[in-house]
Amino acid sequence: MSDLLWTLPELLKITGGRLIGSWFLGVNGVSIDTRTLKYGDLYFAVRGDSLDGHDFIAKAVARGAAASCVSEEKIDSLIGERGNFIVVQDVSQALEELGKISRARMVGKIIAVTGSVGKTTTKEALKAAFSPNGPTHSSVESYNNHWGVLLTLARMPRDTKYGIFEIGMNGPGEIGELVKRVQPHLAIITNVEAAHLGAFESIDDISFAKAEIFDGLISGGTVLLNRDDERFSMLSEIARSRGIENIVTFGESEKSDSRAIQIVLQEEYSYLTASILGEKIALKVGSPGRHFIQNILAVLATVKFLGADLSQATLALSHFTALKGRGKRYPIDYKDKSFILIDESYNANPASMQSALKLLGLLKPKNSGRRIAILGDMLELGPHSSQFHADLAVSVQENLIDKVFLVGSKMRVLRDSLQGKISCKHVEKIECVITLVRVEIHSDDVLMVKASLGMRFSLLVDALLYNHQEANNDE
Ligand SMILES: Nc1ncnc2c1ncn2[C@@H]1O[C@H](COP(=O)(O)OP(=O)(O)OP(=O)(O)O)[C@@H](O)[C@H]1O
Ligand SMILES: [Mg+2]
Predict the structure, then answer these.
(1) Residue 226 is part of a domain; what is its CATH number?
(2) What is the pLDDT of residues 334-364, one digit of tens each?
(3) Ligand 1 pocket check: which of 117, 140, 213, 343 to mutate, most ligand atoms within 8 Å of Cβ?
(4) How many Cα atoms within 13 Å fall on the side-chain side of residue 184?
(5) Number of domains in the chain
(6) Rg of the chain on CA atoms, in Å
(7) Residues near ligand 1 (Cβ within 6 A)
(8) CB-side exposure of 141: number of CA atoms within 13 Å?
(9) Are the C-beta atoms of residues 353 and 450 closer than 8 Å to each other?
(10) What is the pLDDT of residues 18-32, one digit of tens each?
(11) Are residues 202 and 341 in the same domain?
(12) Which domain holds residue 342?
């Protein structure tokens, strides 16, 4: 058996392509984006909504692509380009075929993760927990759409023992299409919340869309459901109606198969005593927050259910820290001030806003430091968007936030709800808040920043981190 991800004869056979250029042994990676392509990858020149990958062949070659998979239709226009070509009728279809064969040759276990919040975090925690148990392959970042799933399949090494796939959606039908390709042994729905609600009439409709993940389960496969979720009964009924017999549950509920017995929340981590499918364990959880315990209970249930080593997994999870943009912390020294930044800038919806505010509430600032929340619009929430924004006022108060900066037009309603209760400033654009924060921050403050991706809150994080370096350089 070859050590290569794909040998050239395999590639030619699977894609039905012909080689133009020189013979090479094969590739160890697959890419559709020249910005992230690695040396020796096979570049698929796919056509997206606005760009055509065939226009980037020179870039792929410059970055060291072993070959480019291009369409017959375009090959004449590529004469003169350097590099090797695998010429096929349809580039997307060729990638699709590679994914199909990859799934078919995989002899390990496949896990699919969907849900409204916590997919990437759960996927990364699964990766950490399974890695000591054998070769583990997983989606990179939030590669959970059509291209992300195809790439994750095509990139799966042949000796993979555990394959972990994040599956997302923007509307009905998408998860069903993707999961049929992935064919998981075990499918997880982390939760069902108001996220991407714009594309749906109700949260119940989101449940139906999440339940599409049952459609691709292998025969005799298992679903892992959140027992604490409001729509647990609904989801388990849908699962049963589709003939799925194995339903495993996780959560704080005593009825869960993987359940928390005791949770001790600390500022930087948690202690968890849990019963995991009948096995009692105690562990330190490296990333703080009650919401994170939910993810961990799902991970531990998966480890135990698939027969991997629970003690190795718990050890790995004790070192697991929050991901960039999803709770990662930075101590910052800016001029004569030292403060803590909690970076939740990756995305936001009502559920993740709540968990991030709780996380901030857990922290006890030193001396006269304050809890400061910098919150931006939550997008794609449909007709009830204003209510969701206004409702955050309760969470802000319950978690004893001292000061709030709000950014964006949708956050005006929260400003109105907080008026007279908490010190609150509202601006329309992220650029305006950057200056404001720099001026208003004190030593020992703890800042949490969170907004939907479209609000570009990473600019604020970068500005604070950059100033940090600038301050150090000045010394
Ligand atoms: N189980 C959970 N319950 C509630 N909130 C959570 C949970 N897990 C993570 N979060 C919050 O949700 C945010 C996003 O987490 P993550 O990126 O893992 O979600 P995702 O489902 O992958 O999102 P996306 O749909 O954007 O890919 C985190 O920053 C954290 O605030
Ligand atoms: Mg994600």
Answers:
(1) 3.40.1190.10
(2) 888 999 999 999 999 999 999 999 999 999 9
(3) 117
(4) 29
(5) 3
(6) 24
(7) 117-121, 142, 144, 168, 190-191, 291, 294-295, 326-327, 344, 346-347, 351-352, 355-356
(8) 10
(9) yes
(10) 999 999 999 999 999
(11) no
(12) 328-474
